[in-house]
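Problem 12. The chain below contains 164 residues. Write out its predicted structure in token notation.
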Amino acid sequence: MDDHKLQAYIDEVRSQGHKDDELKSHLLEHGYDTKAVDEALGPGPAAPPTTAHPPLPGMSGGFKHRNPALVLVFTIITLGIYGVYWLASTTNELKAKTPLAPSPYLLILFVVPLVGLIAAIVYCWKYGKALEEVTKFSGIGMLVLLLFVFPVAQVIAQMQLNKH
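Solution.
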């Protein structure tokens, strides 16, 4: 194994949380030169174990891939309940990418008369701005769609999120 491959292997094993002493003994057991291993490991301490998890199936870039047509069908079949769930779920996904996304807890205020109207406008505005930051789709366009033709907004937003 040349120096570049050895270094790449060490970096990969470190990223999995293994300590340098474990790695060194493993490499020496498999016939690698002590000097080459010491040089590749370098003087620094072992990398801390990573807590990152592999991406979940259907997730790309932090956004769950959903079929836009099925999102629409499920929203219609459940009389809008899935639409609220979808909005909260995609908001959480956006929140992981940008601080502009609204809190999904704001959705609770939608049921309060008058306050719900204001909360809906604020929520849709923030959702649109967050979507714009991540996907470059018009935030104002998404605001209008969310407020006046929610099913169309769902399909377009999901298509945009699927791209990222």
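Discussion. Residues 3-41 form one domain. Students who got a different answer should revisit the alignment rule from Section 12.3.
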